[in-house]
Amino acid sequence: MELTNDSQASILCKSCGLCCTGHLFAWTKLRSAELDNAERLGLKVLRSIPSQRGFNQPCPLWKGQCTVYASPDYPHFCHTYKCALLKKLLDETIALREALRVVEDAKGKICEVEASLPDSTNPNFRERLAARLEDPAYSQETSGQDPLEFRQKADELLALYSKVFGVNDVVGASSEPPIAQ
Ligand code: SF4
Predict the structure, then answer these.
(1) pLDDT reading at 11 higher than 80
(2) Is 19 in the pocket of ligand 1 (CB under 6 A)?
């Protein structure tokens, strides 16, 4: 039986989850009317800056798949967000098998970069990566790693983020809200 586009999208997103897990984004936007409901769902809501209302990633409700997808309180942005890869799948300009391979490749590159990031209490990969790339003091002498090798791996990952997922400005993004206290 041939899978519908929606079924294929579901398979892809369940195998990926990168837009929920803090790898592509630091936080997810919420509408003002969604803030209380999101808190009831168990999300750590950011309220203080009107233009940056949302919740921190990694989303605690992603457990290999979204656990609140069917909830009436499922946030609007989660419902409507489509990365460039998902759009290509829905447009039928990439086959599911190839899209899944691309996601695996991205996850492999993330693992390689993750292994070179300094220890941190921040669970958000995107923020840790940006902090590492923006920290001039983090040198070979302090880390025991080859900074050029790390930079090359990080650049490859950022290029993939841009080309595959359509996500740019991981480094130097000034609009990111701080982690909620
Ligand atoms: S990053 Fe794209 S493919 Fe991955 S879960 Fe999000 S929308 Fe789906």
Answers:
(1) yes
(2) yes
